[in-house]
Amino acid sequence: MSESRLSWLPFLEKPVPADLTEPAQVAAFELSQVPGAGFRLAPDASLPEEAWSVAQGEIRGGRTGILYGTYACLEALKLGRPLPEGLQQPLYDSRMIDCWDNMDGTVERGYAGRSLWFEGGKFSYDPDRIRRLGRLLASCGLNVLCLNNVNVHEPAQNLIADWLPKLAAFAGLLRPFGVRLMTSIDFSQPMREDGPTADPLDAGVQAWWKECADRVWAAIPDFFGFLVKADSEHRPGPFTYGRTHAEGANMLARAIAPHGGKLVWRAFVYNCMQDWRDTHTDRPCAAYDTYAPLDGQFDDNVILQVKNGPFDFQVREPVSPTFYAMPRTHLALEVQLAQEYTGQQIDIYAMPPMWDELLEDLPPQTVSAVAAVSNMGRDANLCGHPFAALNLYAFGRYAWSPAPRAAEVIRDWVGLTYPGLTADERKTLAGLLLDSRSVYEKYTAPLGLCWMVSPNNHYGPSPDGYEYQAWGTYHKANRDAVGIDRTAKGTGYAAQYPPEMQAVYEDPATCPDELLLFFHRLRYDYVMRDGRTLIQRIYDDHFAGLEQTQKMAETLYALPLPEPDRTEARERMALQLHDAREWCDIVNTFFHRLSGVPDAHGRKIWD
Ligand code: GCU
Fold first, then answer.
1. Is any ligand 1 atom within 6 A of the Cβ of residue 151?
2. pLDDT at 40
């Protein structure tokens, strides 16, 4: 199945793998659907004959719980684990995957090939592959797919007007797997279609959206809803009319409410035209400043989707303070599986350790839905790097049941995907994946600085690349110091957190090392908790990151992965090694040239 390798899924393919047919291993179970798409296994019942056909996606009548239960059992059997006991239910009703696919076939921030369903300005796909995709998403518990980019580019704004039957056919392919369709819409659409305005308080605009929604749900009765990026990075929005984002979102929410639709409104709003000389505007403050005052004003079917951090999917950010400020709003946590700033599916970067840290700061009950920017594309292995599918699988597991357990989830994915490796080899690979985030962080962005990537394509080092740009992304390194003071004495950003978190972040002595330069401007001779100076720590981390990448490469090269994964992983590892060296040398040289401070260990830094 090389054209459409689906990573961990081959274990669900017929014929039934031999090791699942042993009577002792096919532990008896019976599935019963429970409300909310959960399932319960009855002990001592027999394996329902339908399980295998269910696993192939032949499910009827909306019994999604049975589907999830079947996958969970097959997965447990394959991993040699006990079957899940008792009631199994997802914490969140909406477990969304946002695809940034454009109708010309490109994928914004996509690193796994072209779009799986668009090409040449129209729909173009292999229905069988889309069905398999639906099955893959369901196998890890995901249930909503947004099929077009949040930046709605020509001609995608006409998806509803011109392509509704095609949308309905696409939705039909995913339906048997309990995956519902969503589209990104353009807030100014009524004007694009010759209306005089898109003002959300205008009766004509409201009627226009209502009629639009009626048409959509008549064609696709289980359509999930609309996703909106408004007043963000030059997208149209309610600000044009002097309206708030609650007024904008509620207008759309009311149009779709009669159909049970959800309106997902992104909180990624900031001034992307900032003058770099302006020291008062601080981009991380933006989402909180815009939305916190609106808490309680959003309709019940609005989901406000907030990125995990206040910037934009950097390798290290504090959790967004907006999550703590809106208890009366349905919030969705947005993460990015596409590794835009984290190696673009060239560098190995397993996300579960990052999500564990996130969950430590953000109790799962703080949000009511989760969304991830997709890392999928037309590549045969779906996610570009053979190991990148781990992030998709893991997102599904965390979305179903958010609890810190990176090691377990990584181990399971390795076990399902590479059953041919020995137990030791699987352990080695799982260990490599578990460490990959920390290694990447060390050779790229020191101590929470962010934005040292090359502008626009966001790959590779460019320490000053974003320094004089309009995106609000500055580190202000000079010969003495680096970082932005975001305490009460600086931009005040830290005050957006609840008092106990604020107290930790305000003081460099208590602020976690990894976030030190996110919250503070410090001199290079600042002495860190471990006794090293800040500048020495920057050098040491970069050298350590490079060294660990070299070790990682040796480990990877020695692993007998199956082909083509072995070749693909090796090829990408060679690039990662090269790029890790660039990162290490360029960032160290940058700080060395500014500060004039030599490395305490006399390692080579370029003058
Ligand atoms: C990032 C990314 C953009 C994307 C934006 C978003 O800024 O670089 O390509 O459009 O996020 O989340 O909307």
1. yes
2. 75
